[in-house]
Amino acid sequence: MAIPVDRGFVHVTDENDGTRTIRVCAEVVDGAPRRTYAQYQHQPSVMIDPSLRLLRTGRAAYTDRIAEVFVDDGGTAHVSHVHALQ
Fold first, then answer.
1. CB-CB neighbours of 53 under 10 Å
2. How far apart are CA 54 and CA 28, in angstroms?
C-alpha cells in the first residue's frame, strides 16, 4: 500500500550502506533540516525528479522550496515538485 504524500522542504542523506534517508521538514538552515515532521529511513530505492533543484552539502542534498515525497506500492520513494501547485 502506498504511503500518503508529505510536503515540505526535503533533505536527502546518502547513508553508508548505500541507502538514503529522506527528511521532510519546515526549513533547511545552513544545509541542516529543522523541525522534521516526516522521515523515510534507509530507503533502498529513491527517485528524484531531475527537474527538481537540489543544493548539496557534504553527503546530503536538499530543496530550496517545498517539494513532495511519497513511497509507491513497490517501495520506491519519490521526491518531486508539488503536483497540486503545477
1. 12
2. 12
H helices within the chain, ranges in order? none
Q: Please say whether the beta carbons of 31 and 62 come within 8 A.
A: yes
Contact 24, 37 (CB under 8 A): yes
Q: Which amino acid is at 7?
A: R
CA-wise closest residue to 45 among 79, 68, 11: 79
What is the per-residue pLDDT across 27-68, written as a single tens digit (0 to 9) for each? 999 999 999 999 999 999 999 999 999 999 999 999 999 999
Counting residues of the chain whose pLDDT is more than 90, the rounded percentage is 91
C-alpha cell at 37: 515532521
